[in-house]
Structure formats: C-alpha cells, structure tokens
Predict the structure.
Amino acid sequence: MSFGYQILGFGSGGVGPPYDIEYLLVAGGAGGGNGKSAGNSEGGGGGGAGGIYTATYSLVPAGTAVTCTVGDGGAGNATGSASGAAGSDSSIAATGFSTFTTTGGGYGGGFNTSGGSGGSGGGGGAYTGGAGSGNSPSLSPSQGSNGGTGGPNGQAGGGGGADGSGGNTPSGSGGSGRASTITGGSVTYAGGGGGGSHNSQHGGGTGGGGTGARGSANVAGGNGTDALGGGGGGGSTPDVNSSRSGNGGKGVVILKVPTANYSGTTTGSPSVSDSGDYKILSFTGTGTYTA
C-alpha cells in the first residue's frame, strides 16, 4: 500500500526529537437504497464503502493534540423507491495542521435512481439507475471505487469498495475492500454493499459490505460492518419490512505510535493494544491522542 508523508506540527517547547506515527482513516459506509413493488420487486443499489487512506505523520512531543473524528454509517431505507443515506466523513487534525479527511460512502440508489458519489460510489437502483462515482473528492492513492449500474429483471448495482468497483447488473455484488496491516495483522476494510434483487442474492464486498436483499425470499439487505466502514446491502420489496435495505457500517481511525514515544494521554476511550514495538490506538468515536 502506498503511504503519504506529512509533517503534523512542531509547536514550541518540544521535548525530544520528532517521531513518526502512522494512521489509517476509514469513513462511514452508506446505506443501501430500497426498491419498488411492481409485480416482481425491483432492487435498490448497494451502499458505497467509506473512503480509506493511510499516511505517516512526523510530530514533536510538545503537547500537540491529534484529534480523531470517526464517521457514522448512513441509514438504509424502508420507503419504496427511496435511496439510502450517505456515510459520514472521518478525519484527523492537529494544531498548526489542516484537517485531513476521508469521505463517507455514496448512498445506494432507489428504484430507477442513480447511486451517490463519495469515498466509494453507491450502486444504481434497478432499471435505469446509474453508478455513483468513487474517490470523490479525489485523493492519491485513491480512497475508493465506483458503484455498479442497475438494470432490468429487478436487479440493482453493487456499491463500490476501496479496491473494487461494485458489480453491474446482473452481478450486483459489492466491490472489494482494502487490506491493511497497521494493527499487526491483516484486516480488510471498506467493502461495498451488494445490490438488491428479486430472485438473486448479491454478496457484499470483502471488508464489511452487507449482502443485498432478495425480495422473492423476503430476505433483507445486510448491514455494513461497524469499524470497517462497509456499505449496506440494497433492499428489494419496500412493503415487506424483511426486505428493506441495510445500514452502512461506522468507520474507524487507527494510530500506530512507537511504544518508546507513547505518552499514554488520550480522550475518547480508544482501544489500545500492543504490536511489536508499537501501541495501536483504535478510535470508534471522536477522541484525541496528545504527544
């Protein structure tokens, strides 16, 4: 995986030399869209995964507070022909440094409705729903991929994932996510939600994408996985609650700090673990680490 390199902030009165911290940002995944009952049900598009980005910061231990904000997942929809909600952004910021942000996933489109743009794009609803654009706004390396397009026979497009576009009808699967080893082991984040369908069930992308609904069996769209930023699965028959669309998964912000430099000063109750010579701080809600 490519890494950026940025100077986080020096401040006055620093003690000791600068040290590097690695970070991973994953925004919230989007909710899937819902379909329309028209004889056979028409599917809603899968929600796009939250945008993902990783880089290395260099900072001086001068009391600089690194603020981590975690994006929520967007809600699915139980209303006929309606799109889901976009995911919320995740960000990192510090004194003297501009906020860096990854973008929430683009919403899954309702029946005949295009998916939304975002970190990864939402899938289009059945019939004429177009694909939402991923990596919007643009980051390098890319924070996500495009959604898939909807088509006939009740089939909707899948939501985009970090490293794979959502499937176009008739496949409708969610796009694949991206693996990171920041925590010490390999974890895949930001998978897209599967598109809803009448007769088929489309899988969510690896990395927490929810499975699309299957209207003929009254199977609901699955929720994206929290702390992975997965997109929610698209819905199918809106007048049957069991076939509604899934919610997007909440994002996460992870910091990798050298144990020798770790201050132990945090807010927001991140989970803290050890990985070799590093402390791993995982934020699932807003909080800070102070160098």
